[in-house]
Description:
Helix content is 40%, strand content 30%. The longest helix is centred in the N-terminal third of the chain and has 40 residues, at 3-42. It is α+β, with helices and mostly antiparallel strands. The radius of gyration is 23 Å and the shape is extended. The chain is built from four helices and five strands.
Amino acid sequence: MPVGIKVLIIVLIAVAAVLVLLYFLGKRAEKKRDEQQAQINAAAQNVSMLIIDKKKMKLRDAGLPQAVLDQTPKRMLGRKVPIVKAKVGPKIMVLICDMELFDFVPVKKEVKATVSGLYLTAVKGIHSAIEAPQKKQGFFEKLRSKLDA
């Protein structure tokens, strides 16, 4: 058997092993995510709040309580996460926002939000509906709109 075919077979076996490993790791991660989502939904509360500010920043710079930073894995402390500063009653709180929800959170508006601990999971407008954020037009989209006009 030529050497090239042997190398090809070994590479195919290695790729198949990696794909099987990724499949099982993905199943385990999905099961873990479902359990965490069930815990978040069990602890959810509806709260009225005024959104003061929102931005993506590192966890250690966000102003979260020290107990939260101690429980966070070290590799996550340097990663940027969506942070929302909101006034809940007389108290200003720092909340970690859901990634999909971050673009829909209005700034300087009063909202009805679902909060689970320090995690913001849903937002509804009190006085008006929350609109989807407008996407920036790309270079070619701007060029097409100028040509069409």
